[in-house]
Amino acid sequence: MSDRAYQVFEEQQKARGIDLEKVKEKLKALKVETPSWGYGDSGTRFKVFKQQGVPRNPFEKFEDAAQVHKLTGICPSVAIHIPWDKTDDYDKLKEHAANLGVSIGAVNPNLFQEDEYIFGSVTNSDPAIRQKAEEHLLECVDIAKTVGSDVLSLWFADGTNYPGQADIRKRKHWMQESLTRMYRAMTPEMRMLIEYKFFEPAFYHTDLADWGMAFNLANKLGPQAEVLVDTGHHAQGTNVEHIVAYLLDEEKLGGFHFNSRKYADDDLIVGSVNPYELFLIFYQILDAEATGSEGVRNNAANIAYMIDQSHAIEPKIPAMLRSVLNVHTQYAKALLINLDEVKEAQDRQDVLGAEDAVRRAFEFDVAPLLRAVREEIGVPVDPMKTYLESGYGQSILSRGKGGASW
Ligand code: PSV
Ligand code: MN
Ligand code: MN
Predict the structure, then answer these.
(1) What is the pTM for the complete model shown?
(2) Owning domain of residue 89
(3) Averaged pLDDT of the chain
(4) Quick check: CB of 309 below 6 Å from ligand 1?
């Protein structure tokens, strides 16, 4: 690497005791899954703006997602949402993905868009609706088997809007019963990731409102069930990295849905307003990898990193690229934390020293490092610039308006 900026960076990091070869290996090994729905039209509850060139079907969504992988080298899989990505030939979709150099990742059941689910899906007091919801969950296990995916990612919109509207405890039991049957249908390789969210669309109570409820349910189901942390699903001020550290220590952290938020579940470009939070999440993961028990280290090594964002006003492919690049940047910065230095300061109970050892890593410019990594893995050193100059965005305009939307 002839880049002068990289040479300076290398000297600087060596002097701090950072093994840059190891850092580069970790940066090359990071895998971030992108969501099929992030390529389609989406919006707020007030309006979905239709954009020109949006994919018209799951096959085209994979074509767009493959661009993101081609340019970054770290997004080899794409999550699907059923029925948004329903097709009568999943083998064909799997083959199409493989031809594009990507694969089908997490399978997300969707139990929140049909009229029958107005009062809940697996928690509905009507047994026929619960049955229908459960059949959909089982259908998704079958789809995962067909496409060769080993992650089932569950989020339930189930909840109520008013006190007294429904029996909260009965709903808790119904949720557990359905998920138990789904769990039993999974192959031993599969993992069930249980996502929580404190409100929306329900405004009074949500059946799986926080990490504790998801964690409790995952524990009851068994070792193949874990918790999924969507960074936008907490009340203001929640310490998300604390939840991450806690779940890791319990060996129950299944994965992430990364996105950025300022107010509620905003689903915006990852790291756009809260890059330090993302950095601190990675700090907890790297610390668990370095100092956790064998089980904790295994958990840290098997986290499913996924993006869950929806683009209402911005062009979708570059927005996804920006998110992936932001994740890579914050991961790179977290890799520069000298964990020994942090530990020494902790042992001295040196509050400012410990905080400084963490924060200092965040303040380095990692652009030269990421350029070096990209050169070594054979992707463009500036993926965004290459995308914007590639003409791909123009080439898809012929798809017209009115593509897939959620
Ligand atoms: C719900 O807000 C959620 O975060 C779930 O992960 C859904 O699958 C996704 O958003 C839909 O956009
Ligand atoms: Mn999510
Ligand atoms: Mn969400």
Answers:
(1) 0.98
(2) 30-316
(3) 97
(4) no
